[in-house]
Amino acid sequence: MKTAIIAEKPSVAREIAGIVGACAKEDGFMHGNGYMVTWAFGHLLTLAMPEEYGFTGFSREHLPIIPSSFKLVPRQVREGKEYKADAGVLRQLKIIRHVFESCDRIIVSTDAGREGQLIHRYIYNYLNCTKPCERLWISSLTDKAIKEGLQNLKPDSEYDNLYYAAKARSEADWLIGINASQALSIAAGQGTYSLGRVQTPTLAMICKRYMENRNFVSVPFWQVKVQTEKTGILFVAISREKYENKDTANEVWRLLQENKTLQVQSVKKKEVNQEPPLLYDLTTLQKEANSKHGFSADKTLSIAQKLYEAKLTTYPRTGSRYISADVMEEIPEL
């Protein structure tokens, strides 16, 4: 029985191919030892634009555009004023079709997450493939993780809900982006404007924060700060109250000078145990890389992805901040 393995990227495919013994290289795939290992380049397929459903131009009568079923098309690139299917994507889809048709079963090795599941299912559905699929679910590319993952394959159908979640996200992006962008452009009367499910709320938050900062009017206040001592121990005390009037603060200061004493009304003492911080997930990594190094979110993700493919970090596109069991066992060696 011959087995096809599809990974999300060529570098990941090479790692898996080395484990299963598929060492012979061909254009777009590797084979050997009963395996054919191929790969995608991220999202090879996207949802078709309105023109594919017969809606040309921007027209108020067309809105809202809600396809009865969405069509998949190869990823497109812009050539002049038009978009055409990416030649490299078309070639790789042809290779994947050949690999799938040449095998009896498929091991899905796209990234262990929602989008990874979507990438495979879109390809699988677009090619009208019916071969049985099993899922390789790993969060690191160590040899041990890959070998254990191959020994614990699960039916790909167990990840249906993950695919449905990603599919819903993809279609929601399309429905909101296409309809809202066309509606705004039509309402404006001229020009083309872009709205999106994520980009527009994000832009709104940025604009709101910008306006708050621009319209902020600082209100001066004063506090009383004194340096004193008790049984030979020097300490600084600052008034808890903030005075909007400088004269009031000066009056408090004058009374302190006259009395030359402070009364401690209460003392609180507690022990605090501070746990070490959790590991980074993608969001916290991107925030810190931006604040400390000025990296954009895309640059941080690109660096993290390269480190992952070089087996130096665990899978970066995750919300988890904990170490997987297979990696934890190898930490003492580090």
TrEMBL record:
Its EC number is 5.6.2.2. GO terms for biological process: DNA recombination; DNA repair; DNA topological change. GO terms for cellular component: cytoplasmic replication fork. The keyword Plastid does not apply. Keywords: Isomerase. Residues 159-334 form the Topo IA-type catalytic domain. InterPro entries: Topo_IA, Topo_IA_2, Topo_IA_cen, Topo_IA_cen_sub1, Topo_IA_cen_sub2, Topo_IA_cen_sub3, Topo_IA_core_domain, TOPRIM_dom. It is an enzyme of class 5 (isomerase). The keyword Membrane does not apply. Pfam families: Topoisom_bac, Toprim. Residues 2-142 form the Toprim domain. GO terms for molecular function: DNA binding; DNA topoisomerase type I (single strand cut, ATP-independent) activity; DNA topoisomerase type II (double strand cut, ATP-hydrolyzing) activity. This is DNA topoisomerase 3. It comes from termite gut metagenome.
